Q: What sequence folds into this?
């Protein structure tokens, strides 16, 4: 099984592409740093008791008065920037993954249904997707976020905010998946194996899920990878705008927003390091997505 | 011709109606404006009076009909946040957003097209690879972060350009305001326009490059080469001309996106436009502003789509021949 995977075209393509290996390595490092933040981070930024204002605005290494206990400096409350970034990445990645997952599930369901059923169902669903696609996804996410937050009672808002954000971003991304899945389904639907399955009386839902779905999953992987980059940017943007995650769950976007206030007083590191981390993370994901697209579609090269 | 426009208009109406319904549903069902406006210590009688003043005690259809009727007249009610008519709030901020969006589009076009042509012709040169790598970073760089980094470099570091606001503005006509009349106004525009235009620029560059690569492979380019035409005339006279139709379409369709997307740039630079207004309204659940903005943006998109369709009709003779 493992040797087969190692010798497959995709794995060979991966091994021989330096960009793919480098971006995968970068993504893996960031993923590990984020996942194991509670064990790897030098401090716990969530632990308010350990913070001391005496430590506030310590500069990063390489500047005067810096020391190794806070390699990337500290913020206005004496919070270690490196640790805050590692914890922040956790939240950014979690929200990113879950929103893309949500978008994929919704997109696949609607795409399969539209492509397989055809007719008026298809027209209606795709019309909705088209209309939504003309709006930038950040606007959709912002409006959905604003509307749901407004509908929730004040007391529950903060606790549920992370789910609202995941829903809002997921909803803003589903048409991409639905259109791709529909397109592939239309092609697959008329192939002989589907006909054969239908002739022997396999129910439609079963044909869709166990016969058509596996054959349309390739493009979904590509869009999913690129969508993860989009989702992470969307979450960071919403949090930066102040309508994203609450300050008790600071993501990279929240950190950048806090740091933005100190730009003019000279403490650039509070905002620049979370920003660079965000760029690296999205860049690694986009490069991987681009590589995957080219690898699965030799025609595009 | 009229049939074509007519069918396009007919297709646009359901879209507007659906968006209108969403906007109304927001308006009517979401949030509790009474508790937001009245504050904590209002009495029950005060709440009732306020709810009556806002028309919230009337039945669904009355409110829906009234919403559509007043929206058609450009009246979207009062903002919950600042208690002013939404229409005038939006109108006073529209010029700022449009000026920013148009400048950003022009910038993106003026820089993106030459870069795309260059990378398309000199496919494997070092500079092309640099530009392509740069464009990937441009796509990966979130808009708000680009704005912050530009502020850090050009406002905080070098002190060349202002980091917020629109500078001094001059009233033109009854409601338009412009920052183009003074040097300070233009200086204020530079950083936001670059921030907003960057994504479009990379998009245009990649698109022009892809189209150029495609066109340069076609037979008529080979024929032009065989005829001994100069590279210059082949590249610009024949190739570029044929790439511009899809490019103009994309720019047109993207303009609505720029207007909507300016909400991020406007927040970073505290640019007093519609986007900043929307973000401030979302933060406090100011539903009338949100639903009016939604309707306005939908209208902008429908109009732009219509214009692009008409341009197609004018540019592509095949569309006319088929009818």
A:
């Amino acid at each position: 099984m493992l040797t087969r995977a190692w010798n497959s075209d995709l794995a060979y393509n991966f091994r021989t592409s330096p960009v793919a290996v480098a971006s995968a390595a970068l993504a893996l490092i960031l993923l590990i740093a984020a996942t194991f933040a509670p064990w790897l981070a030098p401090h716990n930024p969530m632990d308010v008791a350990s913070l001391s204002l005496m430590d506030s605005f310590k500069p990063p290494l390489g500047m005067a008065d810096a020391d190794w206990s806070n390699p990337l400096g500290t913020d206005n409350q004496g919070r270690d920037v490196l640790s805050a970034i590692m914890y922040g990445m956790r939240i950014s990645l979690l929200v990113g993954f879950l929103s893309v997952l949500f978008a994929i599930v919704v997109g696949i369901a609607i795409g399969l249904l539209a492509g397989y059923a055809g007719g008026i169902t298809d027209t209606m669903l795709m019309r909705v997707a088209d209309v939504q696609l003309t709006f930038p996804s950040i606007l959709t996410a912002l409006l959905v976020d604003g509307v749901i937050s407004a509908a929730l009672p004040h007391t529950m808002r903060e606790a549920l905010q992370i789910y609202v954000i995941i829903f809002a971003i997921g909803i803003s991304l589903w048409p991409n998946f639905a259109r791709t899945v529909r397109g592939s389904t239309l092609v697959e639907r008329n192939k002989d194996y589907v006909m054969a399955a239908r002739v022997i009386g396999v129910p439609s839902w079963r044909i869709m899920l166990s016969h058509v779905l596996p054959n349309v999953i390739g493009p979904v992987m590509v869009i999913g990878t690129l969508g993860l980059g989009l989702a992470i940017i969307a979450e960071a943007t919403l949090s930066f705008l102040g309508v994203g995650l609450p300050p008790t769950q600071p993501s990279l976007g929240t950190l950048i927003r806090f740091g933005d206030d100190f730009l003019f007083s000279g403490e650039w590191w509070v905002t620049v390091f979370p920003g660079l981390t965000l760029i690296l993370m999205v860049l690694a994901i986009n490069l991987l997505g681009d590589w995957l697209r080219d690898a699965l579609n030799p025609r595009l090269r | 011709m009229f049939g074509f426009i007519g069918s396009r208009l007919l297709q646009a109406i359901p879209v507007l109606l659906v968006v209108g319904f969403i906007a109304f549903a927001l308006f009517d069902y979401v949030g509790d404006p009474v508790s937001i406006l009245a504050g904590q210590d209002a009495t029950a009688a005060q709440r009732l009076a306020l709810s009556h003043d806002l028309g919230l005690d009337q039945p669904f259809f009355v409110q829906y009909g009234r919403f559509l009727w007043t929206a058609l007249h450009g009246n979207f009610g009062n903002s919950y946040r600042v208690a002013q008519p939404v229409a005038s709030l939006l109108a006073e901020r529209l010029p700022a957003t449009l000026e920013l969006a148009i400048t950003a589009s022009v910038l993106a076009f003026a820089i993106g097209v030459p870069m795309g042509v260059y990378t398309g012709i000199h496919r494997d040169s070092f500079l092309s690879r640099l530009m392509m790598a740069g464009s990937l970073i441009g796509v990966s760089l979130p808009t708000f972060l680009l704005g912050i980094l530009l502020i850090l470099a050009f406002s905080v570091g070098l002190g060349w350009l202002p980091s917020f606001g629109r500078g001094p503005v001059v009233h033109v006509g009854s409601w338009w305001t412009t920052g183009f009349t003074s040097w300070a106004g233009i200086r204020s525009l530079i950083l936001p326009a670059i921030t907003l235009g960057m994504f479009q620029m990379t998009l245009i560059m990649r698109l022009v490059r892809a189209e150029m690569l495609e066109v340069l492979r076609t037979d008529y380019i080979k024929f032009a080469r065989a005829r001994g035409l100069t590279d210059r005339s082949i590249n610009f006279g024949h190739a570029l001309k044929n790439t511009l139709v899809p490019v103009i379409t994309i720019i047109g369709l993207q303009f609505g996106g720029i207007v909507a997307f300016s909400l991020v740039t406007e927040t970073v630079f505290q640019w007093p436009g519609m986007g900043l207004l929307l973000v401030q309204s979302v933060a406090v659940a100011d539903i009338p502003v949100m639903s009016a903005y939604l309707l306005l943006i939908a209208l902008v998109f429908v109009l732009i789509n219509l214009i692009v369709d008409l341009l197609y009709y004018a540019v592509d003779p095949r569309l006319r021949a088929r009818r």
Remarks:
- Chain B has 13 helices and two strands.
- The longest strand of chain B covers residues 170-172.
- Strands of chain B lie at 170-172, 176-178.
- The mean pLDDT of chain B is 77.
